[in-house]
From TrEMBL:
Domain of life: Bacteria
GO terms under biological process: monocarboxylic acid metabolic process; steroid metabolic process
SUPFAM superfamilies per record: NAD(P)-binding Rossmann-fold domains
Similarity field: Belongs to the short-chain dehydrogenases/reductases (SDR) family.
Entry protein name: SDR family oxidoreductase
The keyword Oxidoreductase appears for this protein: yes
Record's keyword terms, sorted: Lipid metabolism, Oxidoreductase, Steroid metabolism
Molecular-function GO terms, alphabetical: oxidoreductase activity
Length: 243
């Protein structure tokens, strides 16, 4: 039987890396990507290859349709098509909306939302042809409730949630499932800007009394990728009861 192939965007570190490692352990061909940090990306590639699987690393901004198209050309050549797409690429912007410049807004929306359109539009034709595919979008609780001083980030994740629900309806007749994991406070570099006091205050708000782990996100993503063909169009909260 041919090995399945997964693409995880934004996977040089944090949640994306944890997801890539999880799929590697399960024997998938793994395609990883990030926009800027080639050194980190190649380190992650080397780690993944210790599981004796094929890993392709691509440096490029998935918010650019040309860059995404080039990645999919390379995937076609190496693996034929992908079975699982995990849209994880994301950046945050902390600050008042009135201090935000248009280029800051555009960068957040491009990285967090346009990248999802680009990768989905390029992955779907082969998934439809194969009558098989899983698309899993990594969202945030702020996409449902919004966060002060993170308006653009919240808007991008809210857009991702609506995108997930709509696309799931479109692709269900082709046996392609589309779901999102709505993450709460996960212990990654994205939260390292918090002071110790702020971190304790945050943890006190979470009924589970701790931050989530990237590996817990990875476990859920993998579960969505290989089970439950009737589960689609869902925004699944992983937040320790926080929201």
């Amino acid at each position: 039987m041919n090995k399945k192939t997964v693409l995880i965007t934004g996977s040089s570190r944090g949640i994306g890396k944890a997801i890539a490692v999880k799929f590697a352990k399960k024997g998938y061909n793994v395609v990883i990507n990030c926009a800027h940090n080639e050194e980190e990306l190649l380190k992650t590639k080397a780690e993944i290859e210790t599981y004796q699987i094929s890993c392709h690393a691509y440096l490029g901004d998935m918010g650019s349709y040309d860059a995404a198209s080039e990645l999919f050309r390379q995937i076609k050549k190496l693996y034929g098509s992908i079975d699982v797409l995990v849209n994880n690429a994301g950046i945050s912007y902390i600050g008042l909306l009135t201090d935000m410049k248009p280029e800051d807004w555009n960068r957040v929306i491009s990285t967090n939302l346009t990248s999802v359109f680009n990768c989905c539009s390029l992955a779907i034709p082969d998934m439809v042809k194969n009558r098989y595919g899983k698309i899993i979008n990594i969202s945030s609780v702020w996409g449902a409730v919004g966060a002060s001083c993170e308006v653009a980030y919240s808007a991008s994740k809210g857009g991702m949630n609506a995108f997930t629900k709509a696309l799931a309806k479109e692709l269900a007749p082709s046996n392609i499932q589309v779901n999102a994991v709505s993450c709460g406070a996960i212990d990654t570099e994205m939260n390292r800007f918090l002071t110790d006091d702020e971190l304790m205050q945050l943890i006190n708000e979470i009924p589970a009394s701790r931050l989530g782990r990237a590996e817990e996100v990875a476990d859920l993503v993998y579960h969505l990728a290989y089970k439950n063909e009737y589960l689609t169009g869902q925004i699944i909260g992983l937040d320790g009861g926080w929201i």
